Amino acid sequence: MLIVKxxxxxxxxxxxxxxxxxxxxxxxxxxxxxxxVVLSAMGDTTDDLIALANTINPNAxxxxxDMLLTTGEQVSVSxxxxxxxxxxxxxxxxxxxxxMMHSTSRYGNARFKRVDTERIMHELDSRKIVIVTGFQxxxxxxxxxxxxxxxxxxxxxxxxAVLHAxxxxxxxxxxxxxxxxPRVVKTAKKLDAVTYDEMLELASLGAKVLHNRSVEMAKKYxxxxxxxxxxxxxxxxxxxxxxxxxxxxxxxxxxxxxxxxRISVIEVPDQPGIAFRIFSALAASKINVDxxxxxxxxxxxxxxxxxxxxxxxxAAMQIAEAFCQTVGxxxxxxxxxxxxxxxxxxxxLSNPGVAATMFEALGENNINIxxxxxxxxxxxxxxxxxxxxxxxxxxxxxxxx
Length: 401
Ligand code: ASP
Ligand code: MG
Fold this sequence. Notes:
Layout: E1 2-7, H1 15-30, E2 34-39, H2 45-56, H3 62-86, E3 91-94, H4 96-99, E4 101-103, E5 112-115, H5 118-125, E6 129-133, E7 136-138, E8 144-146, H6 152-162, E9 167-172, E10 193-195, H7 196-207, H8 212-220, E11 225-229, E12 238-241, E13 253-269, H9 274-284, E14 289-294, E15 301-308, H10 313-327, E16 331-344, H11 354-364, E17 371-375, E18 378-384, H12 388-398
Helix pairs in contact: 1-3, 2-3, 6-8, 7-8, 9-10, 11-12
Bound molecules: aspartic acid (ASP) and magnesium ion.
């Protein structure tokens, strides 16, 4: 088998952990497998490097930031190769230039375009463990780029795809993907398997286990991913794949997202093209809009509400104010004291009544819903922030997860 194993920063934070990871990879190697290891930078290295850059120049060019940040991964892969060699196992570390991981030019947020396999295959053929820097690429100017924070997952999946790996194991400090955040819901359970689509929804809902793009890429190239604990080595993790055998679980998880602000534009003219104007202005400023609600028109006016990530609150408010003025609306208001609770599951496709169960659980707990949005495999509601934890627990119970 060819196995790609990715370890995050906390798994390689110090000497003991580096040797720990080395030993786990060597087990697979000794079992006769080809092993490719992808690493993040040690511990908080990436944050520390960003802080360091800020002390020199808070407006540093992204090109130089990428040059700086990619050093973190180069430290961890070389140390890992040394650790394996100290354990008498042949290993070689490679960076994005040596593998040739071609990316788009966008510094700080590059995407892979093409990844060469010759060098890695050659090293595997000579029975070495190959250790590759996560998070980095090379653009057409022969500059080094980064893939955005948490991008090492995407490096691992990209390599698994081009090398046709049998599996891509992502090691983290949790045991897998859970039915809810175990810190919020005491009875949350680890899932054996989720689909790519479910994982994408869960990731964007703040489950934050995997880099979103890694899941998109795994789906596109049918890479089987497994999220596993780097601490509990014998605990099976969560498999991410196309379809889960029996869709016996109606929903897979309940997610809570506190990073939400609701913005409402009140009494705008009820005319065609109005919604287009504000949402295209938001899109032009690269502001992601999540839940949208438009009231039924009355006396020639309607209200338009939408939610954005709180980081975009000020920018979105400015756009909403400008829009309100030009179209002659009444006023704009916002509320950042809200939370979004969502349920996700491919099982809801074929099962009516899922929404009813969710709303009943909220109603019985006196939790008011101010906005609702649905997709094929997700239902989200907006509620008051203080009620977030209560809501997640009530819904988790209602579906007997
Ligand atoms: N070291 C990078 C970061 O901290 C990449 C990664 O961890 O995946 O964002
Ligand atoms: Mg990291």
